[in-house]
Amino acid sequence: MNRNQAIIASLCYFSVFIAPIIVPIVAYFVVNEKETKRHAIRSLISHIVPFVGWLFLFIALLGGAVAIDGDSLLPVFVIIGGAVIYFLVVIGIIIWNVIQGIKVLRAA
Questions:
Q1: How confident is the prediction for the chain on average, in pLDDT?
Q2: Please, what is the Cα angle at 58 between 86 and 75, to 5 degrees?
Q3: Residue 38 or residue 73, greater confidence
Q4: Chief subcellular site?
Q5: pTM for the complete prediction?
Q6: How far is residue 38's CA from residue 20's CA, in Å, rounded to a whole number?
Q7: Is the distance from CB of 12 to CB of 27 less than 8 angstroms?
Q8: How far is CA 91 from CA 36, 46, 64, 72, 101, in A?
């Protein structure tokens, strides 16, 4: 992988801050090198995971809102616990993307 390809691959990972899904898709279709495409797919998957998690959290929030009755606080704790776990996973994914972007830049 040459320096330009490494920069494109690292931008796919760093795009978690700017345009999470668009940059890896564009890089995948524009670049011809196999390793850069592999990095684009890996970063795309890591950008899609928080979105899917958000959908699950939203569905749980709606389900918890429906299930809340006057006496039980269990749905509230489940919603709060789910939100905490979701945000920890998102922070972990962001850190992973930054580490991978730095690794790709250093390797070139």
A1: 87
A2: 85
A3: 38
A4: membrane
A5: 0.82
A6: 16
A7: yes
A8: 24, 12, 24, 31, 15
